[in-house]
Every structure is written in structure tokens, then in C-alpha cells.
Design brief:
The complex is a heterodimer of chains A (153) and B (395). Chain A is α/β, with parallel strands linked by helices. Chain A is built from three helices and seven strands. Helix content of chain B is 48%, strand content 12%. With 395 residues, chain B is an alpha+beta fold. The chains are: A alpha/beta (153), B alpha+beta (395).
């Protein structure tokens, strides 16, 4: 493990990070404000040459959270950019115009959690069928489909 | 320019699993392509939230039938990362052995299928014949040809029987000779050169942009391999090389896969030799609250799992990302501009594994909340159908 990995991340993101959590030497979670997401992702992807691994959306207690995971293959570590919002419907800036690898996953998160991505070139259904009801997001906590989905076989 | 549309799928004899590709063509040339996934989404991420940490490996093993051990490895590594858990060294070696056997049979499967897609069925027959002993070895060591159920949080579920190693090594030697012959046949055959070289070009820049993985990215000359970048299991304890090919085309991806077979055999040999005695399980009893990420190099590329724990015995969020999810969209770069004939082998060159790419869908009655079809019901239906077919065929 490269000793300088944490240093590099701190130097590049410290000025916009709300919190930098070093879970393990090769696992760093950086929370940024939603307005700084594009800036932070640009620094990791374009400036430092990280690989975009995937994003994961989560329905948390008070709102929604999206983690964008960036892999540093040379250093052998992962940096996860965390953004949170309490708005409903939740909305974040889209990374897809900058990173083509983010197109599919942002559509998937939109489908399953109802999080919108501002600026996505084609935010249409990916996983769910076309006739799926608009207000049912299966990955939200509780039973989001209750009373909304008709019996169909 | 007038274009017509050729749909491949969602259900098509060329594909083992449902997926829809729409090729927009001008004459013989593909000018645009659309991909539609979601035809076989099984909701595994949602199901996982209702399972205990120890049950999830059985579930994620079923994300993919071919790379059935890479998902459990990535998942348990995520849990081990969340809880800062140590794994006994013997268990790490066993994980590597199973993962490499899996890579061997998966790559041979692909070589066979690639031959089949090119209409070169001799390659298909050879590769699948040589793949068979690998599956036998898997059965001998783990009890099953696939879905080995070997991986658990904190170690492995069963020990390997060392008295079987000499026999296995003998068969691996045999296999190595056969794969050498196959490698020669693929790399020297002028027909294969003509069909594969310069076809489906994925430039280094595009590969980075799409976040392509595994042989797809290594065939474009980028040495990304989780086994080397962030060594897990026993990959930092044995000697092996990352295989890359600079040609950026289907040929490069094929060469990477064939050459990786030799590395896999070499890793298995060294693991057998270096494996220490000792425990195979850390007997984990508690997962603390927190989050963890695990990734592992499956035959098709990096498998990525994110797990969040709240201190109970079930994950509150589990994200699984299979390599094909990142590799499939590269078709927007590789297929456009090629001829329809080449589209099939280009689409196949990422070794797509569709069902891994998608995971969800439960059938409930909205008024009563009653579950209309559950797992047991589906198993019963499937068994009844098999019985009916047997009777029909008079067996």
C-alpha cells in the first residue's frame, strides 16, 4: 500500500471536503456538499486519473445518499465521494457528461430510488419496465409498492 | 441516409440470456446501437437486505453461474472491510485456488463461444472439451462443478483434501498442453486473424472513459487487475504476471483470455505448494455498524460489492456490481462503424453475462399483500415441468 495515498487525497480534496474518513489505509470516504460534487469528481477522474468504479444510492434515515466510488489502481485504493440530501424528490448533479461509465448506474439509481441527476443526457428507464408506475421506487425503505401495484401475472 | 433497424433479442438464439440490442444499419454497416437491459432483473440487492450476513454468500453466488465464486469473495471482503476482520492464511490460499479454477473454466468457455460465433465450431468443440476436466477438478475439490459454496465471512466453509492434489496437478499438466495447442491455433490461424484483428476497436481513452474492466480493458493495453492492484486472497503470496495486449481489438481480448489460462494454472500450482496448515475460519460472531467495500477480479473483470451494516445480523444496504455492467456500454464505441456480421463477435468479446448485470422484481397482490409467487413455488413448478418432459421422452 502506497503510504502517500491518503496525503494525495487530502491535498486535492481538503478545501472542499466536509469530512474525510479514513476507514482503512486503502478505503477513504470523502463527504462533499452537493454543489462541490462535480468539482471533486473532476479532480479525481480528470486530474488524478482515477477509474470510475460505480455509484451506490441508499435511502437513509433523513434523506438520500449517493456514494461515487473511484478506484486508484496504481495505488491500490478506493475513494468514495459521499453526497447527501434531505430534499424530496432528491436531486444531484450528474457525472455522466464527464464520465461515460456513470450513464448506466445513474439511470439505475433513478429507477430504483427515484433520485434525479441534473444534466444526465438520457435519464430514462434502465431496469424497470416502461409501464412501471412513476412513483414506486423499489429500493426505498419500507414497502414502497404497497397499494400502488396492481395484481398482474 | 436511410437506416433500418435489426433487433437482436430480447430473446434470441445467439444469447443465453435475455437482452435487447438494436442495431441501426445503413446497408451492411452499423451506424448506431441501443442497448436495453432489465429483462431478467432479479432484485438480489433487495433480497439481500432480508438475509443474514452468513446467508448472503449463497445468494450472491447465484448472481452468475459461471463466475459463481467471485461475487461471494467480493462480498465477504466488503464485510471483512466493514468489520476490520482478519482471515486465516490457509483460507486465503483456498480462495485463490477456487477463484483461479473458475477463471480457467470461464475463459475456456468464452474461447469456445467465440469460435461458435465466428462459425468456427472446431474451436468450440476443442475448448469445451478441455474445459470439462476443470469442472471435474472443481467437483473433486469442492463437491460441485459450479456454485461451490466455499466462501464465508472470515474464511472458507470447507477445507481442501490434500491427498487429491497430485491427481489434480497431473490433470492440470495435461490441460496446459492442450491449451498451448489451442493458443497456437488461435494466435497463428490466418482465418481468425482476418476475423478478429482491427475489429471492434476500443481505444485506451474510451476504455478509461467507460471504466471498462478485466480482459476488455487489458486487451486495450491498460494493466488494471485487482489481483495485482489491491492484492486479496493469496495473490500477493504467489508469482504471476498481468497479461495485457496492446492491439485494442477483439483479437487482443481473445489473446488476453487465452494467456491468462496459463497464469491461472501457475497460480494454482504455487498455491498447492505454499499452502500452510492451520485454521480455515476466523469464526466471526459479530459485524459492527459501518460500511465496507470489497472488490475481486472475476474472469470478466472487477466485481464490486458495497455493504452497510447497522450492527444487526443483516446488511441494511448491499450494492453488487458485476463487471459486464461497465463492459456492456463499450459497445457504443466498438460496434458503430463495423459490419453486421462482426457485431455478434464484438458484442460477445466483452464476455457478456447479462443476468449478472441486473438484479430485481417481486410479485405481490396489492390489495391483500399476499405473495403470489415465492421461491418454493418456482422450484416446484420447475420440478414438475422436468418430470413432465421426462415422461414425454419415455425415461
Amino acid at each position: 500500500m502506497n503510504e502517500g495515498f491518503e496525503q494525495i487525497i487530502r491535498q486535492n480534496l481538503e478545501d472542499i471536503a466536509r469530512e474525510i474518513e479514513v476507514h482503512a489505509p486503502e478505503r477513504i470516504y470523502v463527504e462533499v456538499g452537493p454543489d462541490d460534487l462535480l468539482d471533486a469528481a473532476g479532480r479525481l477522474f480528470q486530474k488524478l486519473g482515477a477509474r470510475y468504479a460505480i455509484a451506490s444510492g441508499t435511502h437513509i434515515e433523513n434523506g438520500f445518499e449517493v456514494l461515487h466510488h473511484f478506484a486508484f489502481d496504481g495505488e491500490g485504493g478506493l475513494v468514495s465521494l459521499r453526497v447527501r440530501t434531505e430534499e424530496d424528490p432528491p436531486e444531484f448533479d450528474s457525472l455522466a457528461p464527464m464520465i461515460k461509465g456513470a450513464r448506466f448506474i445513474e439511470r439505475e439509481i433513478h429507477d430504483l430510488l427515484g433520485i434525479r441527476f441534473r444534466g444526465h443526457p438520457n435519464l430514462t428507464r434502465l431496469i424497470l419496465p416502461e409501464d412501471w408506475p412513476d412513483d414506486v421506487y423499489p429500493l426505498r425503505q419500507g414497502k414502497p409498492w404497497e397499494g400502488k401495484v396492481k395484481k398482474q401475472i | 441516409m436511410t437506416t433500418s433497424t435489426i433487433p437482436i433479442g430480447p430473446f434470441h438464439p445467439l444469447q443465453e440470456e435475455p437482452e435487447l440490442f438494436r442495431l441501426h444499419v445503413d446497408g451492411e454497416t452499423v451506424v448506431d446501437v441501443d442497448v436495453e437491459i432489465g429483462w431478467n432483473h432479479r432484485g438480489i440487492e433487495k433480497v439481500s437486505e432480508g438475509k443474514t450476513f452468513d446467508q448472503v454468500p449463497f445468494l450472491v453466488e447465484r448472481i452468475c453461474g459461471i463466475c459463481s465464486t467471485s461475487h461471494p469473495i467480493a462480498y465477504v471482503q466488503a464485510v471483512e472491510d466493514a468489520g476490520h476482520l482478519e482471515v486465516p492464511e490457509r483460507a486465503l490460499y483456498i480462495r485463490s485456488i477456487i477463484a483461479e479454477l473458475e477463471r480457467l473454466h470461464s475463459h475456456l468457455l468464452w474461447v469456445g463461444l467465440a469460435g461458435h460465433f465466428l462459425g468456427y465450431n472446431t474451436v468450440f468443440m476443442w475448448a469445451w472439451k478441455y474445459r470439462e476436466p476443470v469442472l471435474d477438478i472443481c467437483e473433486e475439490l469442492t463437491g460441485n462443478r459450479n456454485n461451490y459454496a466455499m466462501i464465508k465471512v472470515g474464511g472458507v466453509r470447507r477445507d481442501l483434501d490434500e491427498s487429491k492434489f497430485p491427481g489434480v496437478l497431473g490433470r492440470l499438466d495435461e490441460l496446459e498442453k492442450k491449451v498451448k495447442m489451442l493458443a497456437g491455433a488461435v494466435t497463428d490461424d490466418p482465418v481468425l486473424h482476418a476475423r478478429l484483428k482491427g475489429v471492434g476497436v476500443l481505444t485506451e481513452e474510451a476504455a478509461r472513459d467507460y471504466g471498462a474492466l478485466g480482459p476488455t480493458v487489458r486487451g486495450s493495453g491498460i494493466p488494471w487487475d485487482v489481483r495485482a492492484d489491491e492484492p486479496y486472497a493469496a495473490y500477493d503470496l504467489v508469482d504471476w504476471d498481468i497479461i495485457t495486449a496492446p492491439s485494442c481489438d477483439v483479437y487482443g481480448r481473445a489473446v488476453v483470455r487465452v494467456l491468462e489460462c496459463f497464469e491461472s494454472i501457475e497460480i494454482i500450482r504455487q498455491c498447492f505448494e505454499n499452502m500452510p496448515e492451520g485454521d480455515i475460519d476466523a469464526n466471526v460472531t459479530e459485524i459492527p455498524p459501518g460500511e465496507g467495500i470489497g472488490h475481486a477480479e472475476a474472469p470478466r473483470g472487477e466485481t464490486f460489492h458495497y455493504v452497510r451494516s447497522d450492527g444487526t445480523n443483516q446488511p441494511v444496504r448491499h450494492k453488487a456490481r458485476a463487471p459486464t455492467y461497465m463492459n456492456l456500454p463499450t459497445c457504443y464505441e466498438t460496434v458503430v462503424g463495423e459490419s453486421v456480421t462482426d457485431a455478434t463477435i464484438i458484442l460477445a468479446s466483452v464476455d457478456p453475462c447479462y443476468s449478472c448485470t441486473e438484479r430485481m422484481g417481486v410479485v405481490y397482490d396489492a390489495s391483500s399483500g399476499e405473495r403470489l409467487l415465492d421461491g418454493k413455488e418456482l422450484v416446484r413448478l420447475s420440478q414438475e415441468k422436468t418430470e413432465a418432459l421426462r415422461r414425454e421422452m419415455g425415461r
